[in-house]
Every structure is written in structure tokens, then in C-alpha cells.
Amino acid sequence: MLLAGGQGSRLGVLTSKVAKPAVAFGGKYRIIDFPLSNCINSGVDTVGVLTQYQPLRLNTHIGIGIPWDLDRNVGGVTILPPYEKSANSEWYTGTANAIYQNMDYIDTYNPDYVLILSGDHIYKMDYEVMLDFHKAKNADVTIAAMPVPLEEASRFGIVVTDQESSIKEFEEKPENPSSNLASMGIYIFSWPVLKDALLKLSEQPNCDFGKHIIPYCHENGKRMFAYEYNGYWKDVGTLSSYWEANMELIDIIPEFNLYEEFWKIYTNSPNIPPHYISDQSVIDRCIISNGSEIYGEIHSSVLGAGVTVGKGSIIRDSIIMRDVEIGENCIIEKAIIAEGTVIGDNVSIGIGAEVPNRMKPNIYSGGLATIGENSVIPSNVQIGKNTAVSGETTREDYPDGLLASGETLIKAGECS
Questions:
Q1: Most buried residue, 72, 161, 162, 292, by CB count within 10 Å?
Q2: How many Cβ atoms are within 10 Å of 145's Cβ, its own excluded?
């Protein structure tokens, strides 16, 4: 069961019109491609994808599951949005509530085990090895956990284990963590145990795995174990972590390799022509996807499909998503530009001093300039750092041709 209904509000304008798992990553991929690819690479061929917030692009991307070989007569991939019931209809109000509302779907397959995944993490993991661990321990619940720096541990659910990996304590986002082993939000339950917990806690408002189901199982003496994972795992929940994870892909020897033969990452790629790079172009340490036309300079950046970069334009340390048009003689530094954006000529983005964002300093930080999808940036304007722009902006929206560092420009009708 793949939980993909989250908004991802800490990604600001990037998720104003699209669910976080459908946000582009690494050029041609979307975040949800990673858990879906892990499933098919691990031999998991029955996947329910629970959607809720802005699901259109996610539904279109997954389709009937052909890229992941999940177009099956029995099993395969099923999209599970909230639905009208004869009584007590409601949205999914928590991670466990979403599973509770789809117990009939799970029961259809009469499974021995249910694997619960998040749709918004970047990692490669063989769930079959974790299931073997679960069986070997005769466990009721197995939680995938990984060591994190102790100073960051309060952001996670923390498990305390003994030498046998049996869980002795579970603390959800503790102020003073007593261990640095963090839950990754990946669980294997024996189905009767999960079913019992869901039924018992069904009245609980905003029923959640970390806050309710796991503590309930622990209090009731269920056999709970931590499966320790030591590979690459990234929660790209903030703009800075999302930018960093993309930039790590273009290292000379990347820590996370998208192109391993034995563990492929599959995606729904449009059938488009190869990229065109002109004889004046300079390209250095980049990922550039199909259908792009490059006439300028690009350094240490990740470009999606169908991007156009005009003559004389220079792009550095940026993420440019698919179908973005960048005019001539632009300078773009440390920016995230979402899909379908059109940028005029002589535009500078990511300039000036680093000033905290006035409206949402916790979201628009790290010196990044973030531009929401289908935005329009007129020619001859400058945009500073820690800024956010969304919508069809005009020259009049930029006093003296400038959106200063720390400012936000969201046009009427756009979500911030």
C-alpha cells in the first residue's frame, strides 16, 4: 500500500497544483517512480496507490502501470482515491485512516503480509529481504529504520532495540531522543495484526501509523522488530533537501546511481525526440533529458524533457523541469523552475544578497529562487534569492524591474 496523497506543503509553490509524489526528480523521473520501481524490482506485483491531494498528474503518470510492469490481470497497480460511502464519508485524515478506508481492497487478495510505503522518498530497497527478515523473526510488525545524526533524530519516529533487533521503545518525534535509529515510514505487518489494530482504532481522529498504530501494537505485546537499512535514503520534503538530492545526482561518482542495470528506476516517459545541443553551447556536469534544445551555457544543473535554453543564457546549480522555455541572455543561479514556465530575455534569477523570505522563511530558504509551474517571467527583470514566484507575472509586478531577495510574488488565483 503506497501512501501518495500528501501535499508536501514545505515544497511551497512546487506543490500548489500537484501532489508531492508527482513532483519531477532527476530530469525525467517523478518521486513516486522510486517506491514503484522498488516494488517491481522486489517482486511485489500488487500495489494500491492511495491518492488524495491534486491527484490528476499522479493518476496520469501511473496510468495502468505499464512502465513498471504492473499492468496485470490479477493484482498490478490500483489507484485508490477517497470515495463516497453510504455513511460517514470522509477524506483520508491520516496515514492509517487511509489504509482503514481500503481494507476491502486488501481483503480481496487475502494476504499474509501488507507492506506500507510512503510515496515521497528517494531510495532503492529490496523489500523481499525485509520480508525474509520479518518471517525469520516471526514478527507481527517490522519497521524499516536507519541511523540518523542524533541532532536530527527529533524529526523522526525513533525506535530503541535490543541485540535481537526487537523494539523495546517507540517514540514519535521525541524532544530528547534516546536512540538515533529512525523509522523510515516503511512497515511490514502481518495482515491479521494490522486489521485488528485498524478496527480497534478506527474511531481515532487523524489515525496515523507513527502516533497510533505502532504504539497500540507495542502496548499490546505484539512481536515488533526493526529492520536496519544502511543505504541511500532521502526525504525530499523541503526545497533545500530536494535541491541537494538533485545536485547529488551530478557528482562525478554519485552516491545514488539512477542508472544501475540490476536495479532499474522505471518511469512513464513521453515519446519525444533526442536533445539538440548547438555548436555555441557549453555543458558541464549536467543531466539533460530528451527533447531539450540548448543554445546557451549550462553548468551543474538538472534539466527535464523539452527544455529550451536561448543563446547567451547561463544556468548554474539549478533544477529546470520539463517544457520550460528560457529566453536569450538570461542568468539563472541556484533556482528551481517548475514545469511549463516561460522566461523572457535578459532575465536574472538568484542574484543579490541572501535575505530571509519575509512571508515563509522556513520554506523559501537556502538561497534558492523557486518558480511555480506554468509561470511567466517577463523580459528584463531580476529576481533575488529566497524568493518565490507563481503565476503569469508582468513587468508591472516588478518595481524598478526587481523582485528583491526574500520577497514573494504570487498572482491572484495562485496557491502559495
A1: 292
A2: 25
Cβ-based neighbours of 130, under 8 Å, separated by 6 or more: 142, 144, 186, 188, 227
- Residues 63-76: pLDDT tens digits? 888 888 888 888 88
- Where do we find the cell 533526442? 274
Closest to 312 (Cα-Cα) out of 325, 327, 300: 327
Q: What would the grid cell of residue 61 be?
A: 503518470
Ramachandran category for residue 316: left, alpha or beta (phi over 0 → left; psi -120 to 50 → alpha): beta
Contacts of 246 (CB under 8 A, 6+ apart): 25, 26, 302, 319
Q: Which three-class secondary structure state does DSSP give residue 320?
A: strand
Give, in order, the Cα–Cα distances in Å from 3 to each of 53, 82, 278, 321, 401.
Answer: 11, 12, 43, 24, 43
Total count of residues recorded for the chain = 416
Half-sphere exposure of 51 (CA within 13 A, CB side): 22
Q: Which residues contact 388 (CB under 8 A, 6 or more apart)?
A: 12, 13, 357, 359, 360, 363, 364, 369, 370, 371, 372, 408, 409, 410, 416
Q: What is the dihedral of CA 4, 7, 8, 11, to 10 degrees?
A: 130
Q: Is the pLDDT at 7 greater than 80, yes or no?
A: no
Burial string for 380-397 (b: 16+ CB within 10 Å, else e) reads ebbbbbbbbbbbebeeee
Residue 295 in contact with residue 311, Cβ under 8 Å? yes
Cell of 194: 494490522
Find how far residue 211's CA is from the centre of its chain: 22
Q: Give residues with Cβ within 8 angstroms of 110, minimum separation 6.
A: none
Q: DSSP secondary-structure letter at 166?
A: B
Grid look-up 518558480 returns 371
- pTM, entire model: 0.92
Strands (E), 191-301: 224-228, 233-235, 276-277, 282-284, 287-288, 293-294, 297-299
User: Is the model more confident about 284 or about 96?
Assistant: 284
How many Cβ atoms are within 10 Å of 263's Cβ, its own excluded?
15
| Residue with grid cell 535490543, as numbered in its chain | 162
151 three-class SS? helix
